[in-house]
Amino acid sequence: MTETMTSPSGTGPAAAAGTRIMVKADSVHKSYGQLDVLKGIDLEIAAGEVVCLIGPSGSGKSTLLRCINHLEGINGGRMWVDGKVVGYDIKGTKLHEQKHNDVCRNRTDIGMVFQHFNLFPHMTVLENLVEAPRLVLRQKKSQVTARALRLLERVGLADKAGSYPRQLSGGQQQRVAIARALCMEPKLMLFDEPTSALDPELVGEVLKVMKDLAQSGMTMVVVTHEMNFARDVADRVVFMADGNIVEQGPAAQLITNPQNERTRSFLASVL
Amino acid sequence: MSATAVKVEPQRTSPDQYTTVKARYPGRWVSAVVILGVGGLALQSVFTNPRFGWETVGKYIRDVSIVNGIGITLMLTAVCMVIGVVLGVVLAVMRLSLNPVVRTAAFGYVNFFRGTPVLVQLLFWYNLAALYPTISFGIPGVNLDANQIITPMFAAILGLGLNQGAYMSEIVRAGILSVDHGQAEAAGALGINRFHTMRRIILPQAMKVIIPPTGNETIGMLKTTALVSVISVPELLYSSQIIYARTFETVPLLIVASLWYIVVTSVLSVGQYYLERRYAKGGQRSLPMTPWQKLALFFNTHAPLNTDRLARKGGTR
């Protein structure tokens, strides 16, 4: 169904270097009625790269993230994930939006973590992890359960497999949510403000899991307000404002020495 | 203020020397006594008035035709509720469809069946043969006599079941809408398709909202089945009517029917309680206690020889 596109060669620095491009946005536009949320985003993210999207609220960073796995459709431009156009079939010069169930089938290798966790409250932690690989990937129960338990171990919640989400703290719930996304064995992980709904003392445990994940080589796109995390963990930080990418660069450089005036005033207000 | 209090009673320094006295509410005692008095008088009149015919009630309470009537009432309730729930889920999903024609069709159905009295609907189904003497379902070669297919029982099931579907759809729809949108989004992000999202993620959570009014509807349905006595289905009420038409013991037989209705609805209430508990799973940190557990706790804490409580009364902190 999906027309496989090799990303146009030689268009980006990473492509020129021969690295696999995991996410490529080419002039992506998105609007809600009159309101333009994304005004032509160009972005390339290489496999294994960790990119933090920062910016004031309403800058379009969450929307951009949600466009990557087609939770939001785009109105113009194109978006590739691992060389495939997400959510659309290309016919001539037109992007034909796929049916919902086809979109679902095609985004199984993109994991997503939400601000409010969105765990399934009627299932135990283990059931939360096992559900999608069983239903979507049709994998054997024993195989998925073994992997799920390994992942729970990895996020430090091996003893909570039988608990219900309500019985866990926010930080534990978010770690379960990360494990649930990883249980689908994705190539790309999207994080939408994963620590914004947490009590301050619980933020650290989630960031630690994310840091471990980053060090394991996972490609990650993280919308965050945690500047310390961005500086320490991200390979690159992208600053967005008013639906545009204003400035981007290596994490330490952008955060400690921003060039653009908007970036500077934003960082001054959050740091 | 606290400073002066300390000065007034300087000798009572230990907090252990104070005991708390509970507030008294004499009004509660008065209202309890009034209610018990009025209730007692009412009961006395019920049991001493010979016109209630308690002997006749006792004679017919386990009469074969009455018991058969209960069986038919229960069967009708069960079948019609199953039809209602299945139809309700289908209609609710249709109501939430993105297709305006599907959406409007479901709305039209609900509007029609909620907008006409169920008694009228029952009479309609009963008299269907007057509208369509033969039924072919549009299939050539099929030619069925409506009078033979639409028995009173079938008319009753159609009438009550289709009507219930309309009410159930509103309950199910409310349940589906009560589930946070993030649930469907999370399921979609994991690649779970629409059907499985509805069946495995949304509906199980919607059950918490759907079950209590459905229990209510089941109890309502049990009593509504009395309506089908007008199309001569021998359920509980009609069975009693047949007897009192012969013996003229109208009131005792209506009491027989009422007693059975109360017994059955009470049993259903207990079932509803445990069903609600089951679907509260994950909703609270721990399940609420059953009445038995609450009773046990009450007797435990108020037992005169409970050492725990005595120790607390002794004033240790």
From TrEMBL, chain B:
One of its GO terms (cellular component) is ATP-binding cassette (ABC) transporter complex. The keyword Nucleotide-binding does not apply. It comes from the Bacteria. SUPFAM superfamilies: MetI-like. Pfam families: BPD_transp_1 (PF00528). GO terms for biological process: amino acid transport. Its main location: membrane. Residues 70-272 form the ABC transmembrane type-1 domain. It comes from Arthrobacter cavernae. One of its GO terms (molecular function) is transmembrane transporter activity. PANTHER family: L-CYSTINE TRANSPORT SYSTEM PERMEASE PROTEIN TCYL, MEMBRANE COMPONENT OF AMINO ACID ABC TRANSPORTER. It is a multi-pass membrane protein. InterPro entries: AA_ABC_transptr_permease_3TM, ArtM/GltK/GlnP/TcyL/YhdX-like, MetI-like, MetI-like_sf. The chain crosses the membrane at residues 29-47, 67-94, 106-126, 146-163, 226-245, 251-275. Belongs to the binding-protein-dependent transport system permease family. This is Amino acid ABC transporter permease. Keywords: Amino-acid transport, Cell membrane, Membrane, Transmembrane, Transmembrane helix, Transport. It is found in: Cell membrane.
